[in-house]
Amino acid sequence: MWERISGENRGKADFQRLNAEGDGQSQAQKFGVGGYPTFIFTDSSGRELRRVVGGDADGIVRNIKELAG
Questions:
Q1: pLDDT tens digit string along 10-43?
Q2: CA 59 → CA 16, 26, 37, 39, 49, distances in Å?
Q3: 13 has which bridge partners?
Q4: CB under 8 Å to 49, separation ≥6 — which residues?
Q5: d(Cα 50, Cα 62) in Å, to the nearest integer?
Q6: Tag placement on the chain: N or C end, fewer CB within 10 Å?
Q7: Dist. CA 63–CA 48, nearest whole Å
Q8: Chain-centre distance of CA 55, in angstroms?
Q9: Distance CA 67, CA 42 (A)
């Protein structure tokens, strides 16, 4: 799912992937990630705009389009 979403929406958003149980653990704690996958949409200053836990690729793409305008 990650490859499809990030590939199809390149240039519309900045995608970052982290392993919340590995080297991304501190970021996962900072954002309160408790379920996987979790997609967190932030503005350029890092303020959370929307969060989707689980979900399907089409739903994630809809969120990207809504937030990107």
A1: 877 788 888 888 999 998 998 899 888 888 888 8
A2: 18, 27, 13, 11, 16
A3: 10
A4: 41, 42, 43, 67
A5: 12
A6: C
A7: 13
A8: 11
A9: 10
Q: Is 11 helix (H, G, I), strand (E, B) or coil?
A: coil
| pLDDT confidence tier of residue 64, bands split at 50, 70 and 90 | confident
Quickly list H helices, 1-69.
2-8, 25-30, 57-68
Q: How far apart are CA 69 and CA 55, in angstroms?
A: 21
- 42 membership: H or E segment, kind and range: strand 38-42
pTM: 0.73
Can you give the pLDDT at residue 29?
A: 92
Q: Count H helices, E strands: the chain?
A: 3, 2
